[in-house]
User: Fold this.
Amino acid sequence: MALDHLLSLPSIFLLSLLVSALLYGLGALISQKVGGKKRSGKHEPYACGEPMPAEKLQVNIERFFLYVTLFMIFDIAAFLLSLSYNANPIHRVIFIAIIASSLLMIIPEIRGKKR
Assistant:
């Protein structure tokens, strides 16, 4: 009977929370403390100890959104096509045609942008 309570979902959840809190506390105890001191070369944000120039961090947002749109088209298409397994085949063909037309509109935009 006690084993049933120990293996129940709430007790396993609480046990996992307890173990993760203990591991977090142990990590906080043994980790290196960084105070208000100036960082040495080894602790710089860039791997070799040099400060990373800000101009290298700029991202082309337009290209990023094009790729996000492309990903969303494929993601939603795969999800909806997996749900339409028992649907009328003509509906699947129409949906694939809509996806293909949207891809034909986006792909020239992606190829037209410089990297």
Residues 28 and 82 are 46 Å apart (CA to CA). The chain has a mean pLDDT of 77.
